[in-house]
Amino acid sequence: MSQGAGGERMQEFIREFVLRELDHDFGEIPLGALDDAAIIEGIAFTTDSYTVKPLFFPGGDIGVLAVAGTVNDISVMGAQPMALSCAMIIQEGFSGDDLHKIMKSMNATAKKAGVRIVTGDSKVVEKGAADGLFINTSGIGKRSGHLDHNIEMIRRSRQFKWNWPNDSGVADGDVIIASGPIGNHGIALLSFREGYGFETTVKSDAAPMNHVIAEGMKVGGITSMKDPTRGGVANLLNEWADKSRVGIRIREEDLPMDEAVISACEMLGIDPLEIGNEGKIVMAVVPDMADDVLKAVRSKPEGKKAKIIGQATKKVKGVMMETHTGGKRVIEPPVGDPVPRIC
Amino acid sequence: MSQGAGGERMQEFIREFVLRELDHDFGEIPLGALDDAAIIEGIAFTTDSYTVKPLFFPGGDIGVLAVAGTVNDISVMGAQPMALSCAMIIQEGFSGDDLHKIMKSMNATAKKAGVRIVTGDSKVVEKGAADGLFINTSGIGKRSGHLDHNIEMIRRSRQFKWNWPNDSGVADGDVIIASGPIGNHGIALLSFREGYGFETTVKSDAAPMNHVIAEGMKVGGITSMKDPTRGGVANLLNEWADKSRVGIRIREEDLPMDEAVISACEMLGIDPLEIGNEGKIVMAVVPDMADDVLKAVRSKPEGKKAKIIGQATKKVKGVMMETHTGGKRVIEPPVGDPVPRIC
After folding, report:
1. B108 — contact with chain A (CB < 8 Å)?
2. Among candidates A132, A86, A79, which has minimal Cα distance to A107?
3. What are the residues facing A234 on neighbouring strands?
4. Which candidate, B224, B228, B307, places its Cα nearest to that of B275?
5. How far apart are CA B84 and CA B139, in angstroms?
6. Alpha carbon A272 to chain centroid distance?
7. Which of B46, B83, B131 sits opposite A119 (nearest CB)?
């Protein structure tokens, strides 16, 4: 299970079964970059299968996730989402009412993102052959004027060899912005899951973030963006540190978190940095534009609790957090996600 | 199960859950056209989940299928495949050796098609939550010079309002070409499936058909192409008859079929027209170019047994077959595929 949970064991799995077996150096941002989407002939292209459990949870359902997750993976490349696919694997006897609800969620979420589902597939398998319903969405996106502007603004500050923000784009001094409170999705899911069942008001944050991202790019200077899904913020920051060859320092007291998530994490003994989110973006921004990007992000409802959480720096190796008590804690990439099947 | 088998019940399912719930009129060839791929801003975009059982079968495996099937869905729109995605849902404990084999198949098949897998996803689910391995591939394709030429050649014969061959493009008189013998994939699968186990030399035909299609388009005049997967040739021809509002007449004696497939179908009481294929294309071609297209298709190894099997005609309603005995048989769209989980 941990090989699918977004952490270090998944990285090993990908090296062993994907990078070893597949040609992976094709495109502007190739498969081998293991970024959120590939860039091929100017088109951003990404895919995600959703196996979330349960299918309905506080704040959303698999349909919201499947649209928002893929929209976000396109958008963090700076691309403008063009279209999504939807492929369902349905267990024989699955509730028609539930399927109607889920399709409605997909359509509503796509509308919110301003994107359409244009192609699809459905397979039905016997009872016991699939866990109710799995949905795959793939997505394509294209360059926009906002993206061109964003890249131009980076280049006013420094050299930048890519035409897209990407995992390798973070440099010494870049300011790290989180678009809002972390941990909500994983905790909401867990509170609803059999065998846990604790009372909380926490809802999933699942939402398309493309409008927030567009607002940030209008200011410009965003060198990389990621959505902290499987493996959470801890995994995200370590991917940056690794691929951009730069240290990252964050401050615990600057991490946006809801009280209810803090309590739940304490109760369950879970590190909020390792929990998956589905409606958050973490951005790296050239230093002198960070305040303006923050303001832009905050101007959108999904970004109104955005905060600067740290900075890339050559002064540390890997990811380092200054704790509430003034200590220092190394943030390692998690082995797996403490909440499996979050998406 | 029949709702996923490619026949009439699947059409009902799609009307009820997809067309009713999703906005579906976006793009040059929109979702609502229910064609093999959508066309959006000049990009062909398609998706398919593969739930084939068993994963390994005579002539191929789920990896070959997953690449070939999606390459073919892009290619039948006349588009040149650009890139594929690969998203796996893996059951906990799935054999690493099998996964290596499957990934090698995917890479080899992609190479054969001249396309790359550029983005991916992997999810691991508990034992009992998925039937070993499901693979989704989505794909994107673009216009090519061959496609432009193909459309131009159609327009020398008649008006054609689309820029792409598509399900609605068939007109009275168009000649129907099948690229080779039908029924092999379904029979190969069945022969290897638990509970059937009969001896046959039949192998799956799974193969990417983009090179054959490109050869045909170099001649030009192809008004529609489809690959007869779920629901087989019977379903394919009925889709054309329905969407192009034209009758189709085929001759049983012209249907290319291998002896071993004929015997197996007789033994099992299965109509070969209803069996899924994974490396065949059926083309509709403007009459005066049909012989040259046939010749072009036959020049490629995957098309060397191609035959003209019939013609579109206003003189019949729906799909009509002249039988070996000189009789006439109405070919209805199958209710489901007689061999479930063929892809």
Report:
1. no
2. A86
3. none
4. B228
5. 4
6. 15
7. B46
**pLDDT beyond 80 at B322:** yes
Crossing angle for the helix pair B145-157 and B210-219, to the nearest 10 degrees: 40
Instruction: Flag whether pLDDT at A197 surpasses 80.
Output: no
| B312–chain A nearest CA distance, Å | 27
Q: Which helix (H) or strand (E) holds A147?
A: helix A145-157
Q: How much of chain B, in percent, has pLDDT values that exceed 90?
A: 90
Flag whether residue B335 sits within 8 Å of chain A, measured between CB atoms. Answer: no
Nearest Cβ partner of B117 from A22, A103, A130?
A22
**Which residue in B19, B138, B230 has the most chain A C-beta atoms within 10 A of its own C-beta, making it the best mutation to test that interface?**
B138
Across the interface, of A38, A47, A107, the residue whose CB is closest to B22 is A107
The stretches of chain B forming alpha helices (DSSP H) are: 8-14, 62-75, 96-113, 145-157, 184-191, 210-219, 232-244, 259-268, 290-298
* Overall size of chain B counted in residues: 343
Domains delineated in chain B: 2-330 (3.90.650.10)
- Cβ distance A17 to B103 less than 8 Å, yes or no, reads yes
pLDDT exceeds 90 at position B170: yes
Q: Any bridge partners for residue B140, and if so which?
A: B45, B83
Q: What is the ipTM of this complex?
A: 0.96
